[in-house]
């Protein structure tokens, strides 16, 4: 797809601007998309959330974003949210109860009924792993609906998942006893240390979606798959970048898969399934990505160095854990919270899960 032109058109009165619906605007992908669209001032914006009273949701409404509160499994709600929409960024959320495909079908059906002209779907290829194949099932369904213009984004492993995922902290730090400064980072995730895989930040997925939503109509094919990534590197190379940036000794240890099998949280078995696929060197339809091709479309997509410098290192420091009696107590409390969260989610009471995407 050609790179969209950057020449600004004359701004229209706001009421005449096309309306874009961004699913899950309080999440990482949705918020990344909305931030760029607000700056462009070329679309009216609407989003969905399961908690309209959250701090993130209130911040969006303060910027003039319409907010619809409800569940993507509620077809009448989805239909109301879709009314009058010209462009759609379609993001679905895993609730570990088999509902994700139905979310996608509800959104696709409502978009067709509302006459939506342009759709961007955040998904991925079929890889034989339940969590990702859900998204490919949605893609297959969307293909049957005959949208006039639809773009399928095939995404990659999130940088953020190196730091934390579903309540697990994956970076340990040691501090200098005298200065209190961080003296060493210890990274532990279940990826093979020397295996290079594609990475991207979910916020940057949203930025790619915003670029597509703003592109001239003539630049959007009727249907296209865009594999996207910000970088391709191994966990060992990522850790070396942290060391080079901070000047702090950093090491990597491959976390055993049985660690996740023992976690009493929803989706732990899906995490194991995904990492087994990575351990098998990504068999199936492949997982190749070209970061430079992605940046030719959307220059703001960050490589690993840029992600670290623009908030990634701060996230690592904020989410890292330490040894010591006090921190062992904190970790024990966090373990209790995770177990309670697991029970809470399984009985279907969780809200505002968009922030995980």
From TrEMBL:
Superkingdom of origin: Eukaryota
UniProt entry tagged with the keyword Translocase: no
One Pfam family in the UniProt entry: NmrA
Endpoints of the signal sequence: none
Keywords: NADP
SUPFAM superfamilies to which the protein is assigned, alphabetical: NAD(P)-binding Rossmann-fold domains (SSF51735)
GO cellular component, one term: nucleus
Residue ranges of every copy of the NmrA-like domain listed in the record: 21-280
Protein known as: Nmra-like family domain-containing protein 1
């Amino acid at each position: 797809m050609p790179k969209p032109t950057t020449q600004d058109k004359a701004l229209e009165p706001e009421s005449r601007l096309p309306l874009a619906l961004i699913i899950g605007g309080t999440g990482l992908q949705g918020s990344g998309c909305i931030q760029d669209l607000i700056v462009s001032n070329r679309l009216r914006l609407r989003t969905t959330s399961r908690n309209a009273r959250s701090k993130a949701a209130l911040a969006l409404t303060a910027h003039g974003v319409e907010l619809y509160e409800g569940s993507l499994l509620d077809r009448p709600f989805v239909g109301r949210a879709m009314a009058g929409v010209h462009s759609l960024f379609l993001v679905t959320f895993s609730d570990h109860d088999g509902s994700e495909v139905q979310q996608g079908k509800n959104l696709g059906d409502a978009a067709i009924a509302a006459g939506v002209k342009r759709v961007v779907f955040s998904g991925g290829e079929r890889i034989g792993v339940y969590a990702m194949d859900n998204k490919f099932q949605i893609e297959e369904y969307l293909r049957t609906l005959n949208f006039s213009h639809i773009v399928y984004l095939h995404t990659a492993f999130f940088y953020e998942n190196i730091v934390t995922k579903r309540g697990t902290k994956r970076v340990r730090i040691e501090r200098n006893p005298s200065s209190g400064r961080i003296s060493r980072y210890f990274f532990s995730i279940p990826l093979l240390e020397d295996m290079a895989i594609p990475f991207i930040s979910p916020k940057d997925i949203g930025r790619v979606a915003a670029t597509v939503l703003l592109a001239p109509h003539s630049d959007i094919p009727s249907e296209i798959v865009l594999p996207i990534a910000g970088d391709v590197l191994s966990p060992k190379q990522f850790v070396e970048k942290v060391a080079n940036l901070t000047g702090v000794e950093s090491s990597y240890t491959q976390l055993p898969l049985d660690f996740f099998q023992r976690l009493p949280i929803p989706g732990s078995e899906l995490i194991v399934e995904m990492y087994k696929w990575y351990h098998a060197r990504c068999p199936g339809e492949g997982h190749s990505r070209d970061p430079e091709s992605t940046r030719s479309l959307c220059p703001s997509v960050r490589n690993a160095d840029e992600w670290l410098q623009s908030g990634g290192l701060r996230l690592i420091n904020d989410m890292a854990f330490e040894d010591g009696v006090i921190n062992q107590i904190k970790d024990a409390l966090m373990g209790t919270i995770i177990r309670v969260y697991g029970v809470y989610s399984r009985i279907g009471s969780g809200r505002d899960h968009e922030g995980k995407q």
